[in-house]
Design brief:
Layout lengths: L2 E7 L7 H15 L7 E8 L11 E7 L7 E2 L7 H5 L9 E2 L1 H4 L1 H11 L8 E6 L3
Antiparallel strand pairs: 1-3, 1-6, 2-3, 4-5
Helix pairs in contact: 1-4
Length: about 130
């Protein structure tokens, strides 16, 4: 069953438009030519309804083939996925699946997202019918 992966993000007010355009291009490239297996669709954009966005400025929505294409499984004592994604060397100590551990995804999180975030993202995932 396909999965929707939704991430709400709060970017710093001084994040250049060119940086946001670059982030969008990099996310779009993850699907291009099957670079990251399992991605059915991907979109990234700014909200136009700021009055109800609770400070979140942008969203990423990724449709994946299945839970297995997304899930990150940790031992109970392990750190959060966000913590691990920001430290690629630690990823080898945990069982991770295609999307979360893909080097291009980790690079976007580490080099493009985290330095420009005003606060932590909010993420959720759910299965849906086609």
């Amino acid at each position: 069953m396909p999965v929707k992966h939704i991430v709400l993000m709060k970017f710093k007010a001084d994040t250049p438009a060119a940086a946001l355009d670059g982030i969008k291009a990099k996310f779009t490239a993850l699907k291009a030519g099957g670079k990251v297996p399992g991605i059915l669709a991907i979109s990234f954009g700014a909200t136009f309804k700021t009055d109800r966005a609770q400070g979140f400025t942008h969203a990423l929505v990724v449709d994946l083939e299945s839970k297995e294409a997304l899930e990150v499984q940790f031992s109970p004592s392990s750190a959060s996925r966000w913590h691990l994604a920001s430290r690629p060397r630690e990823l080898t100590n945990h069982r991770v699946q295609v999307y979360a551990a893909h080097p291009d995804h980790v690079e976007i999180v580490t080099n493009d997202l985290k330095p420009n975030f005003e606060g932590p993202p909010c993420a959720m995932d759910y299965e849906f019918d086609l």
